[in-house]
Amino acid sequence: MKTTATNTKIRKIVSDLRSEKLIPRPDFQRRLVWSNKHKNAFIKTVLENLPFPEVYIAAGEVDLATGEGKEILVDGQQRLTTLYHYFIGSKIIRLSKDVPAYEDLDNDAKKQFLEYDVVVRDLGAVPIDEIKEIFLRINSTSYSLNPMEINNARYDGEIKQFADSLAAFDFFEKHNVFSGNDLRRMNDVRFILSVVVTMMSTYFHRESEIEKYLERYNDEFDYADEIRAGFIGTLDIIEGFDFPGGYRVWNKADLFTLIVELHRTVIKESMSLDYTVLKHMLTEFYDEVDRYNKEGNEDVTSANVILYHSAVLRGTNDKSNRLARGKVIYNLIIGCMKMLN
């Protein structure tokens, strides 16, 4: 395929977007979401006359009666729409103090903005299936993206960065919670986001709620201090149990449930517990689950052990299994509280 790269002025791009000669969101593109922080940083790049990577367009529909044609924006949607929204003064962008509104620029600065050269690579008139393939190749790696990697490509705002900071805690490295592959595929961040969203709401199915929270708290996450304090407090309790390395509790599904239920009871419901007693109860329970896992149900009489084992064996991120494990651990914590009363 022969392609050409040319410089196109922002003023032409703005005009083409306004007149819908340039289509910014063909159906095969994911809806990209930048935070206001990233939009402001990008606008500053242009106002300071610094370059940014090329965008891709292709020929779109042509009106055979008038000869008017349209172009499809194959890649560069967020960049060009950000510039357009800045130019028209859209409330979609909340400008930071160091980024002046377009209408507040002096005439020289306005002219510099409108005359800024955007490098545009024109793919020409190619079939839509070929355009889709090009888009996928531009925006993919050598393997299929998992849900967290897709969300990371779309959201990099406040709650995502908050989850990044929690995933970096020494606690997780010390106890080998995440494998090297987990870290490469962002499963550590997915785990943290699942915990945080559950703390803020309730158990949900797989990743069904994560994207909603990434979008809702992309620009601001006012609960960061509260959640961080509760998260740290919960990890401190677990650390105090001093479970040995390689113990069941360090498996992601088991740890997920313990974090959520300890946060729910100790942090949110302010239950007073004897952690020595609770550690003893948890240790007995986890040991019995392990025995059942190895030997079957011959020596196990506890329905909770059987239920928990089933809920951690497969489909661990299904809502039903998260609820089942949560109920068992919650009842253990309640049982510990009753022993002290």
Please give a structural write-up:
- By secondary structure, this protein is α/β, with parallel strands linked by helices.
- The chain folds into two domains: 4-138, no CATH class; 147-340, no CATH class.
- It has helices at 10-18, 36-47, 77-88, 107-114, 128-138, 147-154, 158-167, 170-174, 180-184, 187-200, 210-216, 224-241, 252-268, 275-295, 303-313, 319-340; strands at 4-9, 22-23, 55-62, 69-75, 117-122.
- It has a five-stranded mixed sheet.
- The radius of gyration is 26 Å and the shape is elongated.
- The model has no long low-confidence stretch (mean pLDDT 87).
Feature tags:
5 strands, 2 domains, five-stranded mixed sheet, 16 helices, elongated, 341 residues, alpha/beta, 9% strand
Outline of the structure:
With about 350 residues, the protein is an alpha/beta fold.
- For the record, the count of structural domains works out to 2
| Cα shape | elongated
Strand content: 5-15%
Structural class: alpha/beta
Instruction: Give the total of beta strands.
Output: 5
Oligomeric state of the chains in view = single chain
What's the average pLDDT?
Answer: 87
Spatial sequence of strands, sheet with the most strands:
1-5-3-4-2
The low-confidence parts are none
Which series of helices and strands comes N to C? Answer: EHEHEEHHEHHHHHHHHHHHH
Distance between the termini: 77 Å
What percentage of residues falls in helices of 4 or more residues? 55-70%
- The rounded Rg comes to 26 Å
- What does the main sheet amount to? 5 strands, mixed
Tally the helices: 16
